[in-house]
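Exercise 7.
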Amino acid sequence: MSLTHNTDRIPELVATELDSPPQTPIAYCEVIAMLSRLEGVPLRRKDLLAAAIIGGVIRRVDDTFDRGPIDTAHQQGCAVTDAVLHPGEATLQHVTDPRITKAISMAHDTFTPEALDALKNLMRAQLDSVQQRLPATPSSVIEDITRRKATFFLFAVQVNCSMGPERANCYRELAYLLQLIDDYADYDEDRFAGIHTPVTRSASDTDAVRLILTQYRKVKNLFLKEYKPPQLIEPFSYIDQLLKTVGIVF
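Solution. The predicted structure, written as tokens, is:
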């Protein structure tokens, strides 16, 4: 894909390249732009590309691990993970979805080293996520997988690779919160597919909402230690809107 096009068209161009609807790449680009404002760093073209690439294939990658017979899911998941960890013709040829193959190649050309490391860790977590389809998997393992497979941390280190450990922890906890919200939105689908998450393991909807709001308060307290309140208006308005979208109002 040519990188000489107008920045405003990046989500559309990536979506076309990956044969994906443009809505998610656009949303992810808006998020990474918000992060650049929060961190006070310039928004770079490669940051938008990174967001659009993940947005273009994230659901497809998730489905590789979560759908179909578990043996097939594990086999394909291994192929995708191996291609991310060791990119090259020898590994990419085993990935059956050409759109994922293309996204992996684009990621290695675009991501910062820190974001690429985060992507590799994310794929290791995705491979472990096959355990989410097993009823015997302990809830502590389910939580650990859910934390590690959250995508948002990748965006944070793409935008600001030099953040200290305290800020990095803010984003890890925020990533977990956003993953919980996503799991809440997918509750019925996950239950039907036999996928276990901290949300589906909750005893009731009330308990699931309590879990999410407890994590929300934890995240807000962490961010208030690192950022001034005016800086947090935009990101927490974004989170509040996500909560309202899934029916959680407080």
